[in-house]
Amino acid sequence: MSDFTSLPDLAVRTLGGSVIAASDESFEEKENLLNPWAPRFSPGTFGPKGQEYDGWETARRRPDANGDLGHDWALVRLGLPGVIRGVVIDTAWFKGNFPPHASVDACAVEGHPSPADLAAADWTEIVPPSPLKGDTAHAFDVASGRRFTHVRLNMLPDGGIARLRVHGDVVPDPRLLTGLTVDLAALENGARVVGCSNMFYSSPDNMLFPGLARNQAEGWETARRRDPGHDWAVVRLAAPGLVRLAEIDTTHLKFNAPAAVTLSGASSPNGPWRDLLPRTPVQPDARHRFRLAPGEPFTHVRVDLHPDGGLARLRLLGDLTPEGERALHTHWSTTM
């Protein structure tokens, strides 16, 4: 099994994922499947429907007049369409009520389809019916290589699942990016952090997430340095482009923001690095915006924290080069 869990969760709620329909949610709501936090459990917490779980739980199925038991399903719209590399089906805390088997299908549909529209979609099985255990995170590799927009989780036949994680590579629609000023560092546009000095408290990819951080855990934060060095992260841009404006956001980092930052660009993840923003003081719990002098296009940008600390968000607004636009279209077309 490959270590796909380091890739972004394309379905998580904080990246725009949503459970848009389910066959049943008698005990616990379908929306719990995509909660970003680890599943929680408090024994002896009984509501009107029984013991409360942080997950999706359906009623016990019974055969119909023809003896057909059927199965339950949940339909998920990925927040970030992309190539799925692996799926995690987590039955945390479901010990006597987990489904014995599960499978996952995926499809790619243009626009903003409804559940009824998706019923007629061309679905591909990406995880075949597989046995599950209770209170266990099950990881399944996916080798399709295609770009998908939706997945369908099938419980065979019923029970409870705490979380569904859908890890993969973001593949943005280039028709929404070409010819426009875009955030070249946005995860939703295909950017990724490809190296960093320290990720003790949280992942550096967090600073590329959409929207504003709601607390300091939703950004990138390093451990306290006890040597003369400083921390850094290297961002692979969505595609080659000219960076014209940088936003350095330390929101919620009130006592652990860096004292200063620098930005540099390169045409490879290892440099050579050219200055974009000289060493510049930043304030805690604040958004900082800097116009950058016109320069050459880059494929990677390095942010340096002096000496350590964290960033809530990093935005790098600019223009795709013709080469960058072609690269996005090629990647998109080859995964369709």
Automatic annotation (TrEMBL):
Membrane-spanning segments: none
EC numbers for this chain: 3.5.3.4
SUPFAM superfamilies: Galactose-binding domain-like
GO molecular function annotations of the record: allantoicase activity
Pathways involved: Nitrogen metabolism; (S)-allantoin degradation; (S)-ureidoglycolate from allantoate (aminidohydrolase route): step 1/1
EC top class, as a word: hydrolase
Entry keyword set: Hydrolase, Purine metabolism
Domain Allantoicase: 16-170, 190-319
Catalytic activity as recorded in UniProt: allantoate + H2O = (S)-ureidoglycolate + urea
UniProt keyword annotation of Hydrolase present: yes
Homology family: Belongs to the allantoicase family.
Name of the protein described by the UniProt record: Probable allantoicase
